[in-house]
Write a structure and sequence with these properties.
With 376 residues, this protein is of the alpha/beta class. The chain contains twelve helices and six strands. Helix 3 crosses helix 7 (187-200), helix 4 runs parallel beside helix 6 (125-137) and helix 5 runs parallel beside helix 12 (342-358).
């Protein structure tokens, strides 16, 4: 380009081609910024990994820099294995949410020992069995084992319905803690690690106590009887009548009923070293129980009978609160059709103590002892 043409282009407000090329050369440095972003990401990822490793949010890694495990999440399946491995107990409760209100301190006073409550929200029979297997594999010699029984143990498809949508961390229940860490490189572990850090800084409290106990129902002072009644009965009306013609199963039909979970329970009771085993059908409201005289009730009765036989083989108690009684027919005892109020939990513990001492049945029919150790 001649000087005359260049001058003419500038005069017309145009930049010379060479100037455009020079400007492109001195423009945004994409590769430099990409390197900075990658480096920032790498440093952040390493920092998060170190935080998770140091704070050990599930208490399952083979080191601890913050002392005893603190439960900072309400998915007990991921949090309770650490409590089992700390071995600060000699007695255990296993069950579903219908056993979660059994206070370890009240159980200590009633039965002696030091209880750990391992009951799970919506706990399936297989999950509960995994907890019993973990207790056994840790070499615990139990003073008392209480298994809070619910319909999940009599589920004829229990082997198909082993876990819930909450998931179950099989990797956390084996004997090798070193294989756990890859499963923890996720946002949930970072979130719980952050909560744990806040706990150690005094900014928040533990979600669940170190003995596995939590009052998960609302404060009893806020109890609303009408609201509870709606939750208990829904649109089914406020009555529970027996079938007009009771269903009677044949011997052949009963023999054909299979309860897969009872095989797990049998194996667990045979493997666990426990001085005293108490199996308890928990007192759900009659709205959650089968209709008397129905085919479903017949299946449940057969399941109870088989568990009674299993209990006798293992010198265990079987106490049945899952029956129509003044406890389970009173709406005012419940928040919904599964969960009783906190004062009822204390009554259940007292009743268990009475059942072990007296055998037989409660005077008011609240509980029946279906099996007990030989010689009792």
């Amino acid at each position: 380009m001649t000087d005359e043409v260049r001058a003419l282009e500038v005069g017309r407000g145009r930049e010379p081609e060479r100037s455009c090329a020079r400007e492109l050369k001195t423009g945004f440095n994409w590769s430099g910024h990409a390197r900075i972003l990658l480096l920032t990401f790498a440093v952040s990822a390493v920092a998060l990994v170190l935080i998770v490793a140091a704070l050990n949010p599930y208490g399952n890694l083979p080191w601890s820099f913050t002392g005893s495990h603190v439960v900072m999440d309400d998915n007990q399946r991921f949090q309770y294995p650490a409590l089992v491995r700390e071995k600060d107990y000699d007695s255990v409760v296993v069950g579903t949410s219908t056993s979660r209100l059994l206070d370890p301190e009240l159980l200590d006073a009633q039965f002696g020992g030091r209880f750990l409550n391992l009951a799970l929200n919506d706990g399936r029979a297989w999950e509960q069995s995994q907890f019993m297997h973990l207790v056994q594999s840790e070499g615990a010699k139990l003073h008392t084992l209480i298994v809070g029984l619910d319909v999940v143990w009599c589920d004829q498809r229990a082997d198909e319905r082993r876990i819930t949508k909450r998931g179950f961390p099989d990797w956390m229940y084996d004997a090798n803690p070193w294989n756990d860490f890859p499963f923890m490189l996720n946002g949930k572990a970072v979130e719980i690690a952050g909560r744990k850090l806040a706990y150690h800084l005094g900014l928040t409290e533990a979600r669940i106590s170190s003995r596995g106990f939590e009052v998960f129902v609302p404060p009893d002072a806020s109890y609303d009887a009408e609201k509870a009644k709606r939750k208990i009965w829904g649109n089914r009306g406020h009555r529970r009548t027996a079938a007009s013609k009771p269903y009677v199963a044949s011997d052949e039909e009963r023999k054909g009923w299979d309860f897969p979970a009872l095989k797990w329970l049998d194996a667990d009771l045979g493997a666990l070293a426990a001085q005293r085993v108490i199996l308890v059908f928990m007192p759900v409201h009659i709205a959650a129980q089968p209709r008397l005289g129905s085919d479903v009730a017949a299946v449940e009765t057969e399941c109870k009978s088989r568990i009674a036989g299993l209990a006798r083989r293992h010198d265990a108690y079987l106490i049945d609160f899952r029956r129509h009684s003044q406890l389970t027919t009173r709406d005012e005892n419940y928040w919904d059709n599964l969960h009783y109020r906190l004062p009822i939990a204390g009554q259940i513990i007292d009743s268990l103590g009475e059942a072990l001492k007296t055998g037989g049945a409660a005077a008011d029919g609240t509980w029946h002892v279906l099996a007990q150790p030989a010689g009792k």
